[in-house]
User: Fold Metal-dependent hydrolase from Streptomyces violaceusniger.
Amino acid sequence: MNHLNTAPGRRRFLAVAAGLGATAAAGTSGVAAAAPGPRRLRVATFNIHHGASPADVLDLERVARVIQDLRVDVVGLQEVDRFWKRSGFVDQPAWLGERLGMRHAFGANLDLDPEEPGRPRRQYGTAVLSREPIRSWTNTHLPLVPGHEQRGLLRATLEVRGGCVDFAVTHLQHDDNMERERQAARIVELLGSSPERTVLVGDLNATPETPEIGILTGALDDVWPRAGSGDGFTYDALDPHARIDFHLASRDLRPLTAQVVTADPEASDHLPVVSDLEMPVRRHRR
Assistant:
């Protein structure tokens, strides 16, 4: 059996070696090297409500199944717990990453004393789960009105087909539009006014016509009007009446599809949104 398997492998090796030699010879002519076709990136956003249903029944496995069925390359999560009593003291981003076979990064916007002696500090914030390598990540706290919940921008640099994509996730203040405007302006400062290969997802707690969304769409395109159909309502999950969960993409990315996923509306109080984006081809000369 080993002999039969080795021969095709050797033939493939010789064929690859011959192809590399031909490529090297052609490279001396100065002609642009062949580039792969456009790369699709499938992304999602999902406010997981710390793994609890609208009736506040904890079931993180149910959330994992929803994410698994999305078949995404990367997803941004909001309302993610680490070591809270209400969620069984589970490190939710690590648990989901292991369960789904994905890399993870977590941005702690709340960092509080443990609820029981000997437990780790409890944290709450946003997370990135990625099938692509995460080269680096940072979490930056956003402008805060005293007494309100601290919000942040979690940015992960993903390695995708030899290049990089900046994937960011946020969750803006729910009850103060002026605070959201300041938070949106800070996000634009952090991502840049004309970013490239950048995706921002999240629960923005605002509808498309609001000034805070306008600040963000001054720098990034709202994917839904370009690739979705219908109203795109995401909240609340059992009676959707508002589009407050967004995918925003830099203008060098082409939206192909966008969909609100309604398969399991009781997994969380928000519905997830998934989209396919086409990244530009980068050609290099030798």
